[in-house]
Automatic annotation (TrEMBL):
Its cofactor is FAD. It is an enzyme of class 1 (oxidoreductase). This is Flavin-containing monooxygenase. Keywords: Auxin biosynthesis, FAD, Flavoprotein, Monooxygenase, NADP, Oxidoreductase. It comes from Cuscuta campestris. The keyword Flavoprotein applies. InterPro entries: Auxin_biosynth/cation_transpt, FAD/NAD-bd_sf, Flavin_mOase-like.
Length: 429
């Protein structure tokens, strides 16, 4: 084993001294192991980035700007697979574009304040092209493990296994890697359609149908609005208390206004202002079954990561009765749903807007950096970007959207670049 580690370390040093920037891969054509099977091994002079979403692209671009090559492994066949493959058609950024841009490249001035999905994906594709980020697609990472000062990342591709070896690994799979759907009693009996929002595209196919949407976050609210606009009959299950805020206040986005106020006032005072303004603009949401938590929206976000809902028109549909609000589900039957209040109603379809979760704990063989239950960094923002193990980094797990991912990417690039240039020929290499 020690001989293999020394052999691997020698190869990595040799490749680093070649200063490979345009094509950072070097493939050892020999097979690992002596049994004739084995896997293709790829030595990477810079970091291995797992995930080609916005966070992974930002990390790769920031590294390249500092002269550090990287290899980006992506399980799907495109960048930003969540945005391209698992989101609905009407999706827009809920925050103004300037709070969602990636490092070193602003959105085009021609873009609207809240870009739709199509334009955001176009922006990401231009970003990858501009900074020469070319992910290795259709590579599903099955394990990443530190051994002898190096990281070994195993990935499956078309039924075969590859191993990527580097001093650094950047986990960029994010908080939304896998869809989450709750277990509901009787779900297997339901004869209508039952899907997660990751498979929902448009309300057009639900015209004239009664649809139950489970989950009252931003996705659940927006899917209900979409269904209503296509003349479906949506109902929204609200189990928990939720903060609903207007998307804009006083001619500014609520997010932008809150960030400005936080420069001058404590969080609790800003929360009081936001709630007072929301009541003035939206009315008492509890009258419509949307009860607010006792903790203010910003404080709740800081403590639990739970994001307030930014209303884009759903509340008016709830007020008018076009969208019904229902309590939690007790059980599902063949054609009906029984609620916890004893009422029962027929539905043609059930859509779970119950969010996503991290999948890091299923493949990262390191237990100190990420919590096993949630798959999120144990260190709170803004210090979660650097792992507990040498050479391990995380990007896009801040629960602060694209802005937080961009901050992580810049911190990671700064840290790795110092080490990388030390190991190249100009330094100790």
């Amino acid at each position: 084993m020690h001989e293999m580690v020394g052999f691997t370390d020698y190869y990595v040093r040799e490749i680093e001294c070649k200063r490979v920037y345009d094509d950072p891969l070097f493939t050892d054509q020999t097979k690992d192991g002596g049994g004739g099977g084995g896997r293709r091994r790829v030595y990477v002079p810079g970091p291995i980035i797992v995930g080609a979403g916005p966070a992974g692209l930002a990390a790769a671009a920031c590294l390249k700007a500092r002269g550090v090559p990287s290899v980006v492994l992506e399980r799907c066949g495109c960048i930003a697979s969540l945005w391209q493959l698992r989101t609905y058609d009407r999706l827009r950024l809920h925050l103004p574009r300037r709070f969602c841009e990636l490092p070193m490249m602003p959105f085009p001035a021609s873009y609207p304040t809240y870009p739709p999905k199509r334009l955001f994906v176009e922006y990401l594709e231009r970003y990858a092209e501009r900074f020469g980020v070319r992910p290795v697609f259709n590579r599903t990472v099955v394990s990443a493990e530190a051994e002898g000062g190096l990281w070994r990342v195993r990935a499956e591709a078309a039924g075969e296994e590859e191993e990527y070896v580097s001093r650094w690994v950047v986990v960029a799979t994010g908080e939304n890697a896998e869809a989450v759907a709750p277990r509901v009693e009787g779900a297997e009996e339901f004869r209508g359609e039952m899907i997660h929002t990751s498979r929902y595209k448009s309300g057009e196919v639900y015209r004239g149908k009664k649809v139950l949407v489970v989950g009252c976050g931003n996705s659940g609210m927006e899917v209900c609005l979409d269904l209503s606009q296509f003349n479906a009959f949506p109902s929204l299950v609200v189990r928990d208390k939720v903060h609903v805020l207007p998307q804009e206040m006083l001619g500014k986005s609520t997010f932008e206004l809150a960030m400005w106020l936080l420069k001058w006032f404590p969080t609790r005072l800003v929360d009081r202002f936001l709630l007072a303004a929301s009541r003035l603009l939206l009315g008492d949401t509890s009258r419509f079954g949307l009860n607010r938590p006792k903790t203010g929206p910003l404080e709740l976000k800081n403590v639990s990561g739970k994001t307030p809902v930014l209303d884009i028109g759903t509340l008016s549909k709830i007020k008018s009765g076009d969208i019904k609000v229902c309590p939690g589900i007790k059980r599902v039957k063949r054609h009906t749903v029984e609620f916890v209040n004893g009422k029962e109603e027929a539905f043609d379809a059930i859509i779970f807007a119950t969010g996503y979760k991290s999948n890091v704990s299923s493949w990262l063989k390191e237990k100190e950096t990420f919590s096993e239950k949630e798959g999120l960094p144990r260190k709170p923002f803004p210090n979660g970007w650097k792992g507990e193990s040498t050479g391990l980094y995380t990007v896009g797990f801040t629960k602060r959207g694209l802005l937080g991912a961009s901050m992580d990417a810049q911190s990671i690039a700064q840290d790795i670049s110092k080490l990388y240039h030390t190991y190249t020929c100009s330094g100790l290499g």
